[in-house]
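sorry to bug you again but im stuck and you know this stuff better than me. below you get a single protein, a line of residues and a line of whole numbers that encode the local backbone shape. mainly i need to know what kind of three dimensional shape the backbone takes. anything you notice is useful, everything is just below:

***
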Amino acid sequence: MSDFVKVAKAADIPDPGKLTLEVEDAVVVLFHVGGRFYCIDDVCTPDGGPLGEGCLDDHTVACPRHGAKFDIRTGRPLTMPATEPTLAHEVKVDGNDVYVRINEA
């Protein structure tokens, strides 16, 4: 497992809001919702669509290609055609700094 990597300042991401980033070798989306931060892979599991370009609604992001929805807290698919989760990563906040640790599949 990797170490935590500083990826953003908390104040730089609106609530609600999202930011697509590259952390180590992974492209991920960092979400800020309800005062908390969440991070998942920027990959819709049915076809590799960019979740970071999708619509955020509360704790749900919709793929911009076909509308499959995922829970940003866990990566769990919520609607078809998604049946497999996208990978969720650990997030911690220290002061105004946001850190992500990339989980391996």
About this structure: The beta strands are 5-9, 17-23, 26-33, 36-41, 55-57, 60-62, 69-71, 88-94, 97-101. The chain has no helices and nine strands. Residues 60 and 71 are 5 Å apart (CA to CA).
